[in-house]
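Today's session is about reading a structure prediction critically. Students often jump straight to the picture, but the first step is always the sequence itself: look for stretches that repeat, for charged clusters, for runs of hydrophobic residues. Only then move on to the predicted structure, which in these notes is written as discrete structure tokens rather than atom positions. Here is the chain we will use throughout the hour.
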Amino acid sequence: MGSTPPKCLVTLIRGPFIGPLGSLNNEPTPPIGLAYLAGSLKAAGFTVRGIDACGEALDQITPLPDGKLAYHGLGIEEIILRLDPETKVIGVSTMFSHEWNYYRQLITALKKAFPNTVIIAGGEHCTALTEYTLRDCPALDYCALGEGEETLVEFCEQVARGENPKNTDGIAFLKEGQYIQNKRRARVKEIDRLPWPDWDSFPIRNYLDGGVGSGPSFGRSMPMVATRGCPYQCTFCSNPAMWSNKYYLRSVEDVLREINFYRKKYDITGVQFYDLTAIVQKKWTLNFCEKLIEQNLELEWSLPSGTRSEALDEEVLPQLWKANCKYLVYAPESGSETTLRLIKKKINLKKMEQSIRTAIGCGIVVRTNMIIGFPHETRKNVWETLRMQIRFALMGVEEAPLYAFQPYPGTELFDYLLHKNMIQLNHDYFDSLCSLSTGRLSPPEGSYCEHVGRWELHLYRVFIGLFLTYFISYFFHPKRIFRTFKNIFSADRSTTVLEQRLKDKIRKMKLA
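Below is the predicted structure for this chain, in token form.
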């Protein structure tokens, strides 16, 4: 990493969350990526300040001029007022492309207010659309590609010494209008040596006190990751561009040390793992569960990101339950073998179905995520997915949401649609991605599916993916109705994402 740099202030910014106005399924999550960056920077001797526009104003929602979208958290002017003029480097997280229109404005305003401060942005969006991002936002000096800890530390060391940071591996920039991308930095293999997230730089207690997070809340639920990357190459996922297909596990001991540290410091009662693919290696999972049971931590935990079924069998799932895993999300994506083959989703539906039955039998609350409207899909393919989703609901799956396909930058399907001129990189395209979490039809010009229209897909999603699956869940399991009302209005916890989002909505209504 180089010698110890002179004192230098680095400010890391997470802007507000952008989502459809009035949508229920929109809630910010703690900025764990920036917290990891802050931890590495502090370990290297830097002074770090974090500005989390969401966490500092969790219940502040402001409509955008279009009347369709809103930003959740601090606005641009409020962010600028919180920024120390002594800052030498501003790092901006640009994880989600649907937020790019607003974040472009944010970066432009930051450069105008602090013209002599270096601005670097990183995350999924910048990694996937690096050159486009730099040209679309002239105020942005650099983009960091992929995993950011080592890149940002080296970059800031050079800035602190007054040297030119353009030689840093893992960055890209424009020089006299020419796009220059340096060599991609190798992935960190020994991820145990990375410092833990520095939550002192961000308002993590606001999230913990409000029970705000990715999945259902177990009271004070702490975000964590036990792995990095994903070994698979699904065509709708940007993981290969961001992380490559290399998958690395932390040691069980390091994960447990971090959990115990949070128990003492933040009095947590739960953990939410934000991994891309949390459970792949059966041996690691069994070891982790065994250690949790031995230590009797009395913490509930969940895997709110989609997992695969290969390592979730009759031996593993009972151990997950004994270790207090309460919520598990499977990601079959489709019920069509044809679709699964074309999107390179290498799963066995029969084995996944058996895994789900076993999980439900153990008492774990299960959610299954499905997608319809992939470009190649025929009506038959879509119906196969709908039948599978209904089948899951009848099996006892509590939540079986149905999502409309959205082509995110950095994915194989995005490149395919861009080549066919079915995507135009412009303001409307980025805004249309927000429809992933709402019923609003998108894109305005039509569906990305070449064989099924957007209205038909929308009806499937609303009436089968939403109403029918939840009706089945509550009709055949009426006790869930009483539990849901209890959790929404009285308990400090939630069992499902639906319950948590309803609790979030009621909390905001009371504050309003």
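Discussion point for the tutorial: Residues 292 and 323 are 6 Å apart (CA to CA).
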